[in-house]
Amino acid sequence: MRWLSEDESKTWRSFLHLNSILGVKLDHDLVVNHGLTLAEYEVLVHLSEAEDFTMRMSSLAELCYVSRSGLTRRLDSLIKAGMVIKRTCPADRRGMNAVLTAKGLDKIRSAAPTHVAGVREYFLDVLNVEEVQKLGYLIRKPLAELVLGDHPRSGDRGGCCDAN
Questions:
Q1: Is 58 buried (19+), middle (13-18) or exposed (0-12) by CB count in 10 A?
Q2: What angle is formed at CA 83 by the lines to CA 81 and CA 85, rounded to 5 degrees?
Q3: What confidence tens digit (pLDDT) does each residue in 78-112 have?
Q4: Which of 90, 115, 118, 159 is spaced 20 to 30 A from 2 at the CA atom?
């Protein structure tokens, strides 16, 4: 076992702390201004970027890094609010699609400026252009290794997601 050095430990803990604080602040801004959680916003973003505003539930769960049942719980309030509907997948009648409604599209369009303003204020605006580029590179490097690379645990989400 190779333990973390003092510098590595401080960096890791700072990264976790930053991630937690950003999540809380961005979530708060969306809830207060739009009645939408950050997790719900994430679902709406993915659906708004999908072809025909439609995505297979299993694919959406993977993008949100939650299980299918976790996605269903996340969708409940969006469905109740009329922002998303579930529809049988036409290509595979066994599968279900999540579909963004006009109301959901209006919601994401109104909430996006609040979210972007928060990302800028709480994170990006304290960095210069070069720092943003360097940080982006540094984040993408282990991310690519974990998601796409030959890392022994690549693609392993610790059992949190159901198989397709």
A1: middle
A2: 100
A3: 999 999 999 998 887 788 999 999 999 999 999 99
A4: 159
Tokens describing residue 79: 């469905």
Token readout for 36 is 């939408």
- pLDDT category at 150 given cuts 50, 70, 90 is low
> Of the ranges 84-88, 123-127, 142-146, which one carries the lowest mean pLDDT score?
142-146
pLDDT at 155 over 60: no
Rounded distance, CA 163 to CA 149, Å?
20
pLDDT > 60? residue 31: yes
Please give the Cα distance from 44 to 36 (Å, whole number).
10
**Tokens (6 digits) for 77:** 């309030």
All structural domains of the chain: 21-147 (1.10.10.10)
| Residue 151 burial (CB count, 10 A) | 13
CB 50 within 8 A of CB 57: no
Q: What are the φ and ψ backbone dihedral angles of 85, each rounded to 5 degrees?
A: -125, 160
Helices and strands (H, E) in the chain, number of each type: 6, 3
DSSP 49-66: HSGGGEEEHHHHHHHHTS
